[in-house]
Amino acid sequence: MHYYLLPLGCQMNLSDAERIRTVLEETGYTPCETEEEADLIGLVACSVRQKAIDKVYSKIHKWNQWKADRPLVTFASGCILPEDHRKLLGRFDLIFQIQDLPQLPQMLRQYGVTTALNGAFPALSGTTQEPGEEDYWKVSPTYTSPFEAYVPIQNGCDKFCTFCAVPYTRGREVSRPSSEILREIETLLERGYRTITLLGQNVNSYGLDRPGREITFPELLDRVGSLTRGHPLWTYFTSPHPRDMGEDVLERIAEYPTLAQQIHLPLQSGDDTVLTRMNRKYRLQDYRSIITSIRTILPEATLFTDIIVGFTGETEEQFQNTCAALEEFRFNMAYIAQYSPRPGAASSRWADDVPQEIKKERLHRLTAILEGTAGNFTRSLQGSTRRVLVDGPDRKPGFLSGKTEGRIPVRMSDPGGIEPGTFVTVRITGARPLSIAGEIIDPARGGNR
To answer: What is the pTM of this model?
Structure first.
């Protein structure tokens, strides 16, 4: 019996998919390369963006057509809003919350490979006890990369931004025990992993749901830095919330060479009125203060962000404030999204009153600003040498692709014999707005930075 698993959306869904793989393979399924070969197809869904949920409906429509010709079972998990959950129940055979992953083998045994489940996911363990977050996290992941790993430290969100679906898809914040996090990282070090990304919706509020029983995020970084010291490794985290971001986090990064100097700090808007409607609970000046601390404590750090254009009621003047913020903060990368209402989120009750063509035009204007400011940085790297982690072959024949510590994409001429997951030293010879190009001097040896 073969399975095919399709994760959509963010890195958290990719991490969840790695644990789903483990459960499926321990149940007796083997992976296959294409969905056409599969007896069981799973989808780790994302209701956070309309584009992602549209892909879910497109996929399940096609898969259900295949059932007329062959036995096939489909399931969905991940970030699914209650409204999408209700609509998908009649389309997928099984739908379950990721916290209920340990019960998946029982689901499959009870319903077999040809029987649909037409209802909400019940407790199938034979008891009234529901599995908890810790049961789900104790499933060892089947990593999809031999050198790059995602390690969840937290699930859910307590911020309730008015545009966001996460509190309704993943629930309130729950911190994973630090002992389990450190144990997983120890295993990754033993296997020679080169990058680790700590995942959570608001990583810098880690431990605050368990006061007195768990360490804080800066303390976790301190232990991760100590544990990984001396290893050829870069450790990242995503995403922090500006409201909870303190200098103690930045000071930990400065102290430990294995904590990568790259910060992803979502801005969402550069206008205080819009930020208030978004319920972000910080002002632009608060964000500016954090950026000043980053530039002071980590002057070499790259800075990434998220921005929403066309949020409900956004005027041209308010958008211009976001343009000014983008120019001021000189981000190396910005993930810019056109606002789309998500059912259940507070803003879904408000008029989506910015026309689609204006949203698209604003996205293009911000992208142009980003390419200008980021391009100034990438051009400044020409002639320097940088340590780069090789990802694999580039799309252009004869070249390799990789990333710097600051996660700037790099295209390198391929001298042959270099495996993915290898650190190399690269002389930078060219630059585009969001990437650089260069020549490999020597494979890097030992150390970091």
So the answer is: 0.90
